[in-house]
Description:
The complex is a heterodimer.
Chain A: E1 10-11, H1 25-62, H2 70-91, E2 98-99, H3 100-105, H4 110-149, H5 161-202
Chain B: H1 2-16, H2 21-35, H3 42-51, H4 58-71, H5 75-86, H6 92-108, H7 111-128, H8 133-143, H9 154-162, H10 167-173, H11 175-192, H12 206-235, H13 241-259, H14 266-300, H15 303-314, H16 318-335, H17 338-355, H18 360-373, H19 382-391, H20 395-418, H21 420-431
Amino acid sequence: MDQREIGAPGVSVGAVDSTGERRSGIVGRADLWLERIGSTILTSLFLVMTAVGFIQVVCRYFLEFPLYWSEELIRYLFVWITFLGAGVATAQNLHIEIDILSTILAKKPPKRRERIDRTFRIISAFLLLIFLGYYAYLAGDFLWKIHHLKQTSTAMEVNMLWPMSAILVGGLLMFFHYLARIIRDLKANSDVDAGGLKERREG
Amino acid sequence: MSWLLLWILLFFSFCFLRIPIALGMGMAAAIVMAFTAIPHGLFPSVSFASLDQFPFLAIPFFLYSGDLMVRGKISEVLLGFTESIVGRIRGSLGATVVIGSMLFGTISGSSVATVSAIGTVAMPELLRGGYDRRYATALISASGFLGILIPPSVPGIIYAITAGLSVADVWISTVGAGFLVGGGYILLNYLIYGRRLPRNRVPFVGSEYMRGIGRKFREAIWGILMPLIIFGGVYGGICTPTEAGAVAVAYGVVIVAIGLRNEPNRLKNFLGLTRKTAINNAAICIILAFAMVSGRMIVVLRIPENLTAFITQYTTSPVVFLLIVNGLLLILGCIMETNTSILITAPILVPVAKSFGIDPVHFGAVLLLNLEIGMITPPFAANLFVGCRIGNISMDQVIRPLLSFFVVLIPVLMIITYVPSISLFLVHLLAR
Lengths: 203, 432
Protein backbone atom coordinates (compact mmCIF):
# COMPACT_ATOMS: atom_id res chain seq x y z
CA MET A 1 0.00 0.00 0.00
CA ASP A 2 2.90 2.26 0.39
CA GLN A 3 4.68 2.48 -2.90
CA ARG A 4 6.17 5.84 -2.32
CA GLU A 5 9.22 5.12 -0.27
CA ILE A 6 10.85 3.34 -3.15
CA GLY A 7 9.94 5.78 -5.88
CA ALA A 8 8.11 3.52 -8.27
CA PRO A 9 7.13 4.95 -11.64
CA GLY A 10 3.59 6.20 -11.51
CA VAL A 11 4.07 7.20 -7.94
CA SER A 12 6.54 9.98 -7.80
CA VAL A 13 8.86 10.88 -5.06
CA GLY A 14 10.05 14.37 -5.68
CA ALA A 15 13.61 15.36 -5.18
CA VAL A 16 13.83 16.73 -1.68
CA ASP A 17 15.76 19.96 -1.82
CA SER A 18 15.17 20.70 1.82
CA THR A 19 18.28 22.74 2.46
CA GLY A 20 20.89 24.67 0.60
CA GLU A 21 20.89 27.83 -1.40
CA ARG A 22 17.56 27.08 -3.03
CA ARG A 23 15.88 28.10 0.18
CA SER A 24 17.40 31.54 0.32
CA GLY A 25 15.39 34.71 0.83
CA ILE A 26 12.80 35.44 3.48
CA VAL A 27 10.14 33.15 2.01
CA GLY A 28 12.67 30.37 1.50
CA ARG A 29 13.93 30.59 5.06
CA ALA A 30 10.42 30.71 6.46
CA ASP A 31 9.63 27.67 4.31
CA LEU A 32 12.48 25.68 5.81
CA TRP A 33 11.72 26.86 9.31
CA LEU A 34 8.03 25.97 9.10
CA GLU A 35 8.91 22.55 7.71
CA ARG A 36 11.25 21.83 10.63
CA ILE A 37 8.84 23.02 13.30
CA GLY A 38 6.01 21.19 11.57
CA SER A 39 7.84 17.89 11.44
CA THR A 40 8.99 18.15 15.06
CA ILE A 41 5.47 18.79 16.31
CA LEU A 42 4.20 16.08 13.98
CA THR A 43 6.58 13.47 15.36
CA SER A 44 5.79 14.36 18.96
CA LEU A 45 2.03 14.30 18.42
CA PHE A 46 2.34 10.97 16.63
CA LEU A 47 4.21 9.47 19.56
CA VAL A 48 1.65 10.88 22.01
CA MET A 49 -1.17 9.44 19.93
CA THR A 50 0.27 5.93 19.84
CA ALA A 51 1.12 6.10 23.54
CA VAL A 52 -2.41 7.15 24.51
CA GLY A 53 -3.78 4.42 22.23
CA PHE A 54 -1.74 1.82 24.07
CA ILE A 55 -2.60 3.22 27.50
CA GLN A 56 -6.27 3.07 26.57
CA VAL A 57 -6.03 -0.64 25.82
CA VAL A 58 -4.06 -1.35 28.98
CA CYS A 59 -6.53 0.56 31.14
CA ARG A 60 -9.58 -1.02 29.61
CA TYR A 61 -8.50 -4.64 29.43
CA PHE A 62 -5.85 -5.10 32.06
CA LEU A 63 -6.59 -2.54 34.76
CA GLU A 64 -10.34 -2.66 34.05
CA PHE A 65 -10.42 1.08 34.42
CA PRO A 66 -11.69 2.47 31.09
CA LEU A 67 -10.63 6.04 30.35
CA TYR A 68 -13.48 8.26 29.19
CA TRP A 69 -11.30 10.82 27.43
CA SER A 70 -8.69 8.77 25.60
CA GLU A 71 -10.65 7.84 22.47
CA GLU A 72 -11.63 11.43 21.81
CA LEU A 73 -8.11 12.67 22.40
CA ILE A 74 -6.68 10.16 19.94
CA ARG A 75 -9.24 11.11 17.30
CA TYR A 76 -8.44 14.81 17.57
CA LEU A 77 -4.72 14.13 17.55
CA PHE A 78 -5.24 12.06 14.42
CA VAL A 79 -6.95 14.98 12.66
CA TRP A 80 -4.12 17.29 13.68
CA ILE A 81 -1.46 14.81 12.58
CA THR A 82 -3.10 14.40 9.21
CA PHE A 83 -3.33 18.11 8.46
CA LEU A 84 0.07 19.02 9.93
CA GLY A 85 1.60 16.08 8.11
CA ALA A 86 -0.03 17.21 4.87
CA GLY A 87 1.84 20.49 5.32
CA VAL A 88 5.16 18.74 5.91
CA ALA A 89 4.48 16.39 3.00
CA THR A 90 3.96 19.43 0.79
CA ALA A 91 7.28 20.94 1.87
CA GLN A 92 9.15 17.68 1.25
CA ASN A 93 7.20 16.88 -1.90
CA LEU A 94 5.99 13.58 -0.46
CA HIS A 95 2.31 13.72 -1.41
CA ILE A 96 1.00 10.76 -3.36
CA GLU A 97 0.89 11.69 -7.03
CA ILE A 98 0.35 9.87 -10.29
CA ASP A 99 3.45 10.48 -12.33
CA ILE A 100 2.35 9.78 -15.88
CA LEU A 101 4.08 12.87 -17.17
CA SER A 102 7.67 11.85 -16.53
CA THR A 103 7.02 8.46 -18.13
CA ILE A 104 5.86 10.25 -21.26
CA LEU A 105 8.73 12.71 -21.12
CA ALA A 106 11.36 10.04 -20.41
CA LYS A 107 12.57 9.97 -24.00
CA LYS A 108 13.01 13.74 -24.36
CA PRO A 109 16.47 15.29 -23.85
CA PRO A 110 17.09 16.05 -20.17
CA LYS A 111 17.30 19.82 -20.48
CA ARG A 112 14.02 20.05 -22.37
CA ARG A 113 12.45 17.58 -19.95
CA GLU A 114 13.41 19.63 -16.96
CA ARG A 115 11.99 22.72 -18.60
CA ILE A 116 8.61 21.11 -19.37
CA ASP A 117 8.61 19.57 -15.93
CA ARG A 118 9.11 22.89 -14.24
CA THR A 119 6.46 24.60 -16.36
CA PHE A 120 3.95 21.95 -15.37
CA ARG A 121 4.98 22.34 -11.76
CA ILE A 122 4.36 26.07 -11.89
CA ILE A 123 0.93 25.61 -13.50
CA SER A 124 -0.13 23.01 -10.96
CA ALA A 125 1.21 25.00 -8.01
CA PHE A 126 -0.73 28.01 -9.28
CA LEU A 127 -3.98 26.03 -9.44
CA LEU A 128 -3.24 24.61 -6.00
CA LEU A 129 -2.68 28.07 -4.55
CA ILE A 130 -6.13 29.15 -5.72
CA PHE A 131 -7.74 26.02 -4.30
CA LEU A 132 -5.87 26.04 -1.00
CA GLY A 133 -6.47 29.74 -0.50
CA TYR A 134 -10.17 29.13 -1.03
CA TYR A 135 -10.08 26.11 1.26
CA ALA A 136 -8.37 28.11 4.00
CA TYR A 137 -11.01 30.83 3.59
CA LEU A 138 -13.80 28.26 3.90
CA ALA A 139 -12.11 26.76 6.95
CA GLY A 140 -11.73 30.16 8.57
CA ASP A 141 -15.37 30.96 7.90
CA PHE A 142 -16.40 27.62 9.39
CA LEU A 143 -14.27 28.14 12.49
CA TRP A 144 -15.78 31.60 12.98
CA LYS A 145 -19.24 30.01 13.09
CA ILE A 146 -18.04 27.33 15.50
CA HIS A 147 -16.53 30.05 17.66
CA HIS A 148 -19.94 31.71 17.95
CA LEU A 149 -21.68 28.44 18.73
CA LYS A 150 -19.31 27.90 21.67
CA GLN A 151 -19.56 24.16 21.15
CA THR A 152 -17.59 21.85 23.43
CA SER A 153 -16.56 18.24 22.83
CA THR A 154 -18.54 15.49 24.53
CA ALA A 155 -15.88 13.74 26.59
CA MET A 156 -13.10 16.18 27.35
CA GLU A 157 -15.35 19.26 27.19
CA VAL A 158 -12.77 21.32 25.34
CA ASN A 159 -13.82 24.04 22.95
CA MET A 160 -14.36 22.49 19.50
CA LEU A 161 -12.12 25.19 18.06
CA TRP A 162 -9.12 23.24 19.33
CA PRO A 163 -9.51 20.13 17.21
CA MET A 164 -11.17 21.91 14.29
CA SER A 165 -8.53 24.56 13.77
CA ALA A 166 -6.35 21.77 12.36
CA ILE A 167 -8.08 22.19 9.00
CA LEU A 168 -7.24 25.89 8.87
CA VAL A 169 -3.64 25.36 9.96
CA GLY A 170 -3.19 22.51 7.49
CA GLY A 171 -4.68 24.53 4.64
CA LEU A 172 -2.48 27.54 5.39
CA LEU A 173 0.66 25.42 5.75
CA MET A 174 0.09 23.75 2.39
CA PHE A 175 -0.69 27.14 0.84
CA PHE A 176 2.52 28.63 2.13
CA HIS A 177 4.72 25.70 1.07
CA TYR A 178 3.29 25.81 -2.45
CA LEU A 179 3.85 29.55 -2.53
CA ALA A 180 7.48 29.02 -1.58
CA ARG A 181 7.82 26.36 -4.23
CA ILE A 182 6.31 28.47 -7.00
CA ILE A 183 8.70 31.31 -6.12
CA ARG A 184 11.63 28.89 -6.19
CA ASP A 185 10.59 27.46 -9.56
CA LEU A 186 9.97 30.84 -11.15
CA LYS A 187 13.39 31.94 -9.99
CA ALA A 188 15.01 28.79 -11.37
CA ASN A 189 13.18 29.34 -14.66
CA SER A 190 14.41 32.89 -15.01
CA ASP A 191 17.93 31.76 -14.09
CA VAL A 192 17.78 29.20 -16.89
CA ASP A 193 16.50 31.85 -19.29
CA ALA A 194 19.29 34.21 -18.37
CA GLY A 195 21.81 31.38 -18.73
CA GLY A 196 20.37 30.49 -22.12
CA LEU A 197 20.65 34.09 -23.32
CA LYS A 198 24.21 34.31 -22.15
CA GLU A 199 25.12 31.10 -23.97
CA ARG A 200 23.50 32.33 -27.16
CA ARG A 201 25.33 35.63 -26.95
CA GLU A 202 28.63 33.95 -26.40
CA GLY A 203 27.97 31.34 -29.10
CA MET B 1 -24.16 10.82 -14.77
CA SER B 2 -22.60 13.64 -16.74
CA TRP B 3 -21.46 15.19 -13.45
CA LEU B 4 -19.69 11.96 -12.59
CA LEU B 5 -17.92 12.02 -15.94
CA LEU B 6 -16.96 15.66 -15.46
CA TRP B 7 -15.60 14.87 -12.01
CA ILE B 8 -13.55 11.93 -13.28
CA LEU B 9 -12.27 13.93 -16.23
CA LEU B 10 -11.22 16.84 -14.02
CA PHE B 11 -9.62 14.52 -11.50
CA PHE B 12 -7.55 12.73 -14.11
CA SER B 13 -6.42 15.95 -15.75
CA PHE B 14 -5.32 17.28 -12.37
CA CYS B 15 -3.46 14.02 -11.77
CA PHE B 16 -1.77 14.43 -15.14
CA LEU B 17 -0.59 17.87 -14.05
CA ARG B 18 0.95 16.06 -11.08
CA ILE B 19 -1.27 17.69 -8.54
CA PRO B 20 -1.34 15.53 -5.39
CA ILE B 21 -4.21 13.04 -5.54
CA ALA B 22 -5.81 14.42 -2.38
CA LEU B 23 -5.96 18.00 -3.57
CA GLY B 24 -6.87 17.00 -7.12
CA MET B 25 -9.92 15.22 -5.75
CA GLY B 26 -10.84 18.27 -3.69
CA MET B 27 -10.46 20.59 -6.67
CA ALA B 28 -12.51 18.38 -8.97
CA ALA B 29 -15.23 18.19 -6.31
CA ALA B 30 -15.14 21.97 -5.76
CA ILE B 31 -15.68 22.65 -9.45
CA VAL B 32 -18.53 20.14 -9.85
CA MET B 33 -20.13 21.46 -6.66
CA ALA B 34 -19.98 25.00 -8.02
CA PHE B 35 -21.87 23.89 -11.14
CA THR B 36 -24.48 21.92 -9.23
CA ALA B 37 -25.05 24.52 -6.51
CA ILE B 38 -23.98 22.27 -3.65
CA PRO B 39 -22.74 24.63 -0.92
CA HIS B 40 -18.97 24.72 -0.55
CA GLY B 41 -19.46 25.05 3.19
CA LEU B 42 -19.36 21.23 3.17
CA PHE B 43 -15.62 21.29 2.61
CA PRO B 44 -14.27 22.09 6.09
CA SER B 45 -16.99 20.31 8.05
CA VAL B 46 -16.87 17.10 6.02
CA SER B 47 -13.08 16.97 5.87
CA PHE B 48 -12.96 17.29 9.65
CA ALA B 49 -15.78 14.84 10.33
CA SER B 50 -14.41 12.27 7.91
CA LEU B 51 -11.15 11.99 9.83
CA ASP B 52 -12.77 12.23 13.24
CA GLN B 53 -13.56 8.50 13.27
CA PHE B 54 -12.04 5.95 15.61
CA PRO B 55 -11.78 3.07 13.09
CA PHE B 56 -9.49 5.15 10.85
CA LEU B 57 -6.91 5.28 13.62
CA ALA B 58 -6.06 1.71 12.74
CA ILE B 59 -4.28 3.16 9.67
CA PRO B 60 -1.48 5.05 11.46
CA PHE B 61 -1.12 2.23 14.00
CA PHE B 62 -0.68 -0.51 11.43
CA LEU B 63 1.56 1.64 9.25
CA TYR B 64 3.73 2.28 12.28
CA SER B 65 3.87 -1.29 13.49
CA GLY B 66 4.66 -2.45 9.94
CA ASP B 67 7.53 0.02 9.63
CA LEU B 68 8.86 -1.01 13.03
CA MET B 69 8.75 -4.70 12.20
CA VAL B 70 10.51 -4.16 8.88
CA ARG B 71 13.23 -2.35 10.81
CA GLY B 72 13.50 -5.37 13.10
CA LYS B 73 14.95 -7.38 10.14
CA ILE B 74 12.56 -10.30 10.27
CA SER B 75 12.65 -11.32 6.60
CA GLU B 76 15.55 -13.73 7.01
CA VAL B 77 14.14 -15.62 9.98
CA LEU B 78 10.70 -15.85 8.36
CA LEU B 79 12.21 -17.34 5.21
CA GLY B 80 14.27 -19.74 7.33
CA PHE B 81 11.16 -20.88 9.16
CA THR B 82 9.22 -21.42 5.94
CA GLU B 83 12.12 -23.32 4.42
CA SER B 84 12.23 -25.68 7.40
CA ILE B 85 8.63 -26.66 6.66
CA VAL B 86 8.51 -26.93 2.87
CA GLY B 87 12.21 -27.56 2.26
CA ARG B 88 11.76 -31.18 1.21
CA ILE B 89 9.36 -30.49 -1.65
CA ARG B 90 10.95 -30.23 -5.08
CA GLY B 91 11.01 -26.57 -6.09
CA SER B 92 10.90 -25.63 -2.45
CA LEU B 93 12.79 -22.37 -2.96
CA GLY B 94 9.92 -20.94 -4.99
CA ALA B 95 7.39 -22.15 -2.45
CA THR B 96 9.48 -20.61 0.33
CA VAL B 97 9.35 -17.24 -1.40
CA VAL B 98 5.57 -17.46 -1.75
CA ILE B 99 4.88 -18.43 1.86
CA GLY B 100 7.60 -16.16 3.24
CA SER B 101 6.15 -13.20 1.33
CA MET B 102 2.73 -14.03 2.70
CA LEU B 103 4.02 -14.00 6.29
CA PHE B 104 6.14 -10.91 5.83
CA GLY B 105 3.38 -9.01 4.02
CA THR B 106 0.96 -9.82 6.80
CA ILE B 107 3.32 -8.34 9.36
CA SER B 108 4.60 -5.35 7.39
CA GLY B 109 1.30 -4.53 5.70
CA SER B 110 3.09 -3.18 2.66
CA SER B 111 3.42 -5.05 -0.59
CA VAL B 112 6.32 -2.95 -1.83
CA ALA B 113 8.24 -3.40 1.42
CA THR B 114 7.63 -7.14 1.10
CA VAL B 115 9.07 -7.30 -2.40
CA SER B 116 12.16 -5.40 -1.36
CA ALA B 117 12.78 -7.22 1.94
CA ILE B 118 12.04 -10.76 0.74
CA GLY B 119 13.60 -10.09 -2.65
CA THR B 120 16.91 -8.93 -1.22
CA VAL B 121 17.29 -12.08 0.85
CA ALA B 122 15.74 -14.59 -1.54
CA MET B 123 17.04 -13.45 -4.92
CA PRO B 124 20.64 -14.71 -4.45
CA GLU B 125 19.28 -18.00 -3.07
CA LEU B 126 16.97 -18.46 -6.05
CA LEU B 127 19.76 -17.77 -8.50
CA ARG B 128 22.05 -20.19 -6.70
CA GLY B 129 19.26 -22.76 -6.84
CA GLY B 130 19.30 -22.56 -10.61
CA TYR B 131 16.23 -20.41 -11.11
CA ASP B 132 16.05 -18.16 -14.13
CA ARG B 133 16.63 -14.52 -13.20
CA ARG B 134 13.56 -13.31 -15.09
CA TYR B 135 11.33 -15.94 -13.54
CA ALA B 136 12.71 -15.28 -10.05
CA THR B 137 11.98 -11.56 -10.40
CA ALA B 138 8.44 -12.26 -11.56
CA LEU B 139 7.89 -14.70 -8.68
CA ILE B 140 9.09 -12.25 -6.04
CA SER B 141 7.08 -9.36 -7.45
CA ALA B 142 3.92 -11.39 -7.87
CA SER B 143 4.13 -12.79 -4.33
CA GLY B 144 4.52 -9.33 -2.81
CA PHE B 145 0.84 -8.55 -2.42
CA LEU B 146 -0.24 -11.86 -0.84
CA GLY B 147 0.19 -10.51 2.68
CA ILE B 148 -2.17 -7.61 1.96
CA LEU B 149 -4.97 -10.13 1.49
CA ILE B 150 -4.42 -11.42 5.03
CA PRO B 151 -5.32 -9.15 7.95
CA PRO B 152 -4.28 -6.64 9.06
CA SER B 153 -4.22 -4.44 5.96
CA VAL B 154 -4.72 -0.74 5.38
CA PRO B 155 -6.67 -1.05 2.09
CA GLY B 156 -9.11 -3.29 3.98
CA ILE B 157 -9.67 -0.59 6.61
CA ILE B 158 -10.26 2.05 3.94
CA TYR B 159 -12.73 -0.11 2.03
CA ALA B 160 -14.60 -1.09 5.19
CA ILE B 161 -15.15 2.51 6.27
CA THR B 162 -16.04 3.93 2.86
CA ALA B 163 -18.54 1.12 2.37
CA GLY B 164 -19.84 1.37 5.94
CA LEU B 165 -18.85 -2.17 6.96
CA SER B 166 -17.00 -3.69 9.88
CA VAL B 167 -13.23 -3.72 9.43
CA ALA B 168 -12.97 -7.24 10.87
CA ASP B 169 -15.42 -8.60 8.26
CA VAL B 170 -13.62 -7.04 5.33
CA TRP B 171 -10.23 -8.20 6.57
CA ILE B 172 -11.23 -11.83 6.88
CA SER B 173 -13.09 -11.86 3.54
CA THR B 174 -9.88 -11.72 1.49
CA VAL B 175 -8.14 -14.55 3.34
CA GLY B 176 -9.68 -17.17 1.04
CA ALA B 177 -8.42 -15.30 -2.00
CA GLY B 178 -4.95 -15.00 -0.46
CA PHE B 179 -4.66 -18.72 0.15
CA LEU B 180 -6.04 -19.60 -3.28
CA VAL B 181 -3.51 -17.34 -5.01
CA GLY B 182 -0.66 -18.54 -2.78
CA GLY B 183 -1.56 -22.19 -3.36
CA GLY B 184 -1.89 -21.54 -7.07
CA TYR B 185 1.56 -19.97 -7.18
CA ILE B 186 3.13 -22.91 -5.36
CA LEU B 187 1.48 -25.35 -7.75
CA LEU B 188 2.56 -23.27 -10.71
CA ASN B 189 6.11 -23.11 -9.41
CA TYR B 190 6.11 -26.89 -9.02
CA LEU B 191 4.86 -27.40 -12.56
CA ILE B 192 7.35 -24.99 -14.08
CA TYR B 193 10.42 -25.76 -11.96
CA GLY B 194 10.02 -28.35 -9.25
CA ARG B 195 8.97 -31.15 -11.57
CA ARG B 196 12.29 -31.06 -13.40
CA LEU B 197 14.48 -31.11 -10.30
CA PRO B 198 15.89 -34.35 -8.88
CA ARG B 199 14.20 -35.84 -5.83
CA ASN B 200 15.69 -35.29 -2.41
CA ARG B 201 17.47 -38.60 -1.73
CA VAL B 202 18.15 -37.99 1.95
CA PRO B 203 15.81 -40.31 3.84
CA PHE B 204 13.04 -38.57 5.70
CA VAL B 205 13.38 -38.69 9.48
CA GLY B 206 10.29 -37.41 11.22
CA SER B 207 11.93 -36.38 14.47
CA GLU B 208 14.78 -34.60 12.68
CA TYR B 209 12.26 -32.74 10.52
CA MET B 210 10.20 -31.63 13.51
CA ARG B 211 13.32 -30.58 15.40
CA GLY B 212 14.38 -28.43 12.45
CA ILE B 213 11.01 -26.71 12.40
CA GLY B 214 11.16 -26.18 16.14
CA ARG B 215 14.60 -24.58 15.93
CA LYS B 216 13.58 -22.19 13.16
CA PHE B 217 10.29 -21.46 14.87
CA ARG B 218 12.10 -20.25 17.97
CA GLU B 219 13.99 -17.75 15.84
CA ALA B 220 10.93 -16.58 13.98
CA ILE B 221 8.44 -16.60 16.84
CA TRP B 222 8.74 -12.86 17.53
CA GLY B 223 7.70 -12.09 14.00
CA ILE B 224 4.94 -14.68 13.79
CA LEU B 225 3.50 -13.78 17.16
CA MET B 226 2.41 -10.31 16.07
CA PRO B 227 -0.25 -11.26 13.51
CA LEU B 228 -1.40 -13.96 15.90
CA ILE B 229 -1.97 -11.39 18.66
CA ILE B 230 -3.93 -9.20 16.27
CA PHE B 231 -5.94 -12.16 14.99
CA GLY B 232 -6.73 -13.36 18.47
CA GLY B 233 -7.56 -9.89 19.70
CA VAL B 234 -9.88 -8.93 16.87
CA TYR B 235 -11.58 -12.25 16.13
CA GLY B 236 -11.61 -13.39 19.71
CA GLY B 237 -13.83 -10.39 20.31
CA ILE B 238 -11.36 -8.92 22.80
CA CYS B 239 -10.57 -5.60 21.16
CA THR B 240 -11.32 -3.48 18.10
CA PRO B 241 -8.95 -3.43 15.11
CA THR B 242 -7.76 0.04 16.15
CA GLU B 243 -6.87 -1.13 19.65
CA ALA B 244 -5.17 -4.19 18.20
CA GLY B 245 -3.14 -1.74 16.13
CA ALA B 246 -2.05 0.14 19.25
CA VAL B 247 -0.94 -3.14 20.83
CA ALA B 248 0.93 -4.06 17.64
CA VAL B 249 2.79 -0.75 17.80
CA ALA B 250 3.85 -1.35 21.40
CA TYR B 251 4.98 -4.83 20.38
CA GLY B 252 6.92 -3.41 17.43
CA VAL B 253 8.62 -0.84 19.66
CA VAL B 254 9.84 -3.63 21.95
CA ILE B 255 11.12 -5.65 18.98
CA VAL B 256 13.01 -2.66 17.60
CA ALA B 257 14.35 -1.74 21.03
CA ILE B 258 15.79 -5.24 21.32
CA GLY B 259 16.99 -5.31 17.71
CA LEU B 260 18.74 -1.96 17.93
CA ARG B 261 20.13 -2.26 21.44
CA ASN B 262 23.73 -2.39 20.25
CA GLU B 263 23.50 0.26 17.56
CA PRO B 264 24.65 3.84 18.01
CA ASN B 265 22.15 6.70 17.56
CA ARG B 266 19.20 4.44 18.29
CA LEU B 267 16.99 7.21 19.60
CA LYS B 268 17.70 9.31 16.55
CA ASN B 269 16.97 6.38 14.24
CA PHE B 270 13.78 5.65 16.09
CA LEU B 271 12.58 9.25 15.84
CA GLY B 272 13.51 9.37 12.17
CA LEU B 273 11.46 6.26 11.56
CA THR B 274 8.54 7.74 13.47
CA ARG B 275 8.68 10.94 11.45
CA LYS B 276 8.73 8.98 8.21
CA THR B 277 5.70 6.98 9.29
CA ALA B 278 3.87 10.13 10.41
CA ILE B 279 4.38 11.86 7.07
CA ASN B 280 3.51 8.70 5.20
CA ASN B 281 0.33 8.37 7.25
CA ALA B 282 -0.62 11.99 6.58
CA ALA B 283 -0.07 11.54 2.84
CA ILE B 284 -2.57 8.64 2.87
CA CYS B 285 -5.09 10.14 5.29
CA ILE B 286 -5.30 13.58 3.69
CA ILE B 287 -6.62 11.74 0.62
CA LEU B 288 -9.35 10.32 2.85
CA ALA B 289 -10.41 13.80 3.92
CA PHE B 290 -10.89 15.09 0.40
CA ALA B 291 -12.23 11.80 -0.94
CA MET B 292 -14.99 11.99 1.66
CA VAL B 293 -15.96 15.44 0.38
CA SER B 294 -16.20 13.96 -3.10
CA GLY B 295 -18.15 11.07 -1.63
CA ARG B 296 -20.67 13.46 -0.11
CA MET B 297 -21.02 15.16 -3.47
CA ILE B 298 -21.61 11.80 -5.14
CA VAL B 299 -24.37 11.01 -2.66
CA VAL B 300 -26.06 14.42 -2.97
CA LEU B 301 -26.06 14.17 -6.77
CA ARG B 302 -27.63 10.69 -6.48
CA ILE B 303 -24.94 9.31 -8.79
CA PRO B 304 -25.17 5.66 -7.63
CA GLU B 305 -28.93 5.61 -8.26
CA ASN B 306 -28.48 7.10 -11.72
CA LEU B 307 -25.66 4.72 -12.50
CA THR B 308 -27.80 1.77 -11.43
CA ALA B 309 -30.61 2.95 -13.69
CA PHE B 310 -28.13 3.38 -16.51
CA ILE B 311 -26.63 -0.08 -16.13
CA THR B 312 -29.95 -1.86 -15.70
CA GLN B 313 -30.99 -0.52 -19.11
CA TYR B 314 -28.45 -2.90 -20.57
CA THR B 315 -28.26 -5.74 -18.11
CA THR B 316 -29.98 -6.88 -14.96
CA SER B 317 -27.69 -9.83 -14.37
CA PRO B 318 -25.22 -9.56 -11.49
CA VAL B 319 -22.93 -11.92 -13.40
CA VAL B 320 -22.51 -9.45 -16.25
CA PHE B 321 -22.27 -6.54 -13.82
CA LEU B 322 -19.43 -8.18 -11.91
CA LEU B 323 -17.65 -8.95 -15.16
CA ILE B 324 -17.83 -5.28 -16.20
CA VAL B 325 -16.65 -4.18 -12.76
CA ASN B 326 -13.71 -6.56 -12.92
CA GLY B 327 -12.65 -5.24 -16.29
CA LEU B 328 -12.93 -1.67 -15.08
CA LEU B 329 -11.02 -2.30 -11.87
CA LEU B 330 -8.23 -4.15 -13.66
CA ILE B 331 -7.69 -1.12 -15.88
CA LEU B 332 -7.92 1.30 -12.96
CA GLY B 333 -5.53 -0.83 -10.92
CA CYS B 334 -2.93 -0.52 -13.68
CA ILE B 335 -2.96 3.28 -13.45
CA MET B 336 -3.92 4.15 -9.88
CA GLU B 337 -2.54 3.46 -6.49
CA THR B 338 -4.60 0.98 -4.42
CA ASN B 339 -6.00 3.19 -1.66
CA THR B 340 -7.00 5.91 -4.07
CA SER B 341 -8.73 3.43 -6.35
CA ILE B 342 -10.77 2.20 -3.40
CA LEU B 343 -11.74 5.74 -2.43
CA ILE B 344 -12.85 6.55 -5.97
CA THR B 345 -14.73 3.37 -6.76
CA ALA B 346 -16.24 2.24 -3.45
CA PRO B 347 -18.72 5.12 -2.89
CA ILE B 348 -19.97 4.81 -6.47
CA LEU B 349 -19.97 1.05 -7.01
CA VAL B 350 -20.93 -0.39 -3.62
CA PRO B 351 -24.52 0.97 -3.72
CA VAL B 352 -24.88 -0.30 -7.29
CA ALA B 353 -23.55 -3.71 -6.26
CA LYS B 354 -26.05 -3.81 -3.40
CA SER B 355 -28.91 -3.08 -5.78
CA PHE B 356 -27.74 -6.06 -7.84
CA GLY B 357 -28.04 -8.17 -4.71
CA ILE B 358 -24.29 -8.58 -4.15
CA ASP B 359 -23.03 -8.69 -0.56
CA PRO B 360 -20.81 -5.62 -0.02
CA VAL B 361 -18.28 -7.68 1.95
CA HIS B 362 -17.96 -10.11 -0.95
CA PHE B 363 -17.75 -7.17 -3.34
CA GLY B 364 -14.90 -5.83 -1.22
CA ALA B 365 -12.96 -9.08 -1.59
CA VAL B 366 -13.35 -8.88 -5.38
CA LEU B 367 -12.31 -5.23 -5.40
CA LEU B 368 -9.28 -5.71 -3.16
CA LEU B 369 -7.96 -8.76 -5.00
CA ASN B 370 -8.45 -6.95 -8.28
CA LEU B 371 -6.60 -3.82 -7.21
CA GLU B 372 -3.75 -5.85 -5.72
CA ILE B 373 -3.36 -7.58 -9.07
CA GLY B 374 -2.93 -4.04 -10.40
CA MET B 375 0.26 -3.83 -8.34
CA ILE B 376 1.94 -6.19 -10.82
CA THR B 377 0.30 -5.08 -14.08
CA PRO B 378 2.36 -2.62 -16.12
CA PRO B 379 2.72 0.25 -16.92
CA PHE B 380 2.41 1.46 -13.34
CA ALA B 381 3.22 -1.56 -11.23
CA ALA B 382 4.96 -0.63 -8.01
CA ASN B 383 5.82 -4.24 -7.08
CA LEU B 384 7.28 -4.99 -10.46
CA PHE B 385 9.39 -1.88 -10.45
CA VAL B 386 10.99 -2.72 -7.12
CA GLY B 387 11.33 -6.37 -8.12
CA CYS B 388 13.16 -5.44 -11.30
CA ARG B 389 15.55 -3.28 -9.38
CA ILE B 390 16.39 -6.17 -7.07
CA GLY B 391 16.61 -8.64 -9.94
CA ASN B 392 18.70 -6.10 -11.84
CA ILE B 393 16.83 -6.53 -15.12
CA SER B 394 14.50 -4.35 -17.15
CA MET B 395 10.72 -4.49 -16.90
CA ASP B 396 10.06 -5.82 -20.41
CA GLN B 397 12.14 -8.92 -19.69
CA VAL B 398 9.88 -9.87 -16.80
CA ILE B 399 6.60 -9.61 -18.71
CA ARG B 400 6.79 -13.09 -20.23
CA PRO B 401 7.41 -15.09 -17.02
CA LEU B 402 4.90 -12.82 -15.28
CA LEU B 403 2.19 -13.90 -17.73
CA SER B 404 2.34 -17.41 -16.30
CA PHE B 405 1.27 -15.97 -12.93
CA PHE B 406 -1.81 -14.54 -14.55
CA VAL B 407 -2.72 -18.12 -15.37
CA VAL B 408 -3.31 -18.37 -11.61
CA LEU B 409 -4.57 -14.86 -10.95
CA ILE B 410 -7.33 -14.54 -13.52
CA PRO B 411 -9.03 -17.87 -12.70
CA VAL B 412 -8.77 -17.12 -8.96
CA LEU B 413 -10.30 -13.70 -9.56
CA MET B 414 -13.16 -15.35 -11.43
CA ILE B 415 -13.65 -17.92 -8.67
CA ILE B 416 -13.68 -15.21 -6.00
CA THR B 417 -16.09 -13.17 -8.09
CA TYR B 418 -18.60 -15.92 -8.77
CA VAL B 419 -18.30 -18.09 -5.66
CA PRO B 420 -19.17 -15.66 -2.84
CA SER B 421 -19.00 -18.36 -0.17
CA ILE B 422 -15.18 -18.51 -0.40
CA SER B 423 -15.06 -14.92 0.78
CA LEU B 424 -17.97 -15.12 3.15
CA PHE B 425 -17.71 -18.41 4.99
CA LEU B 426 -14.91 -17.21 7.26
CA VAL B 427 -16.84 -14.00 7.86
CA HIS B 428 -19.86 -16.00 9.01
CA LEU B 429 -17.67 -18.35 10.99
CA LEU B 430 -15.51 -15.82 12.83
CA ALA B 431 -16.72 -12.29 12.73
CA ARG B 432 -20.43 -12.39 13.41
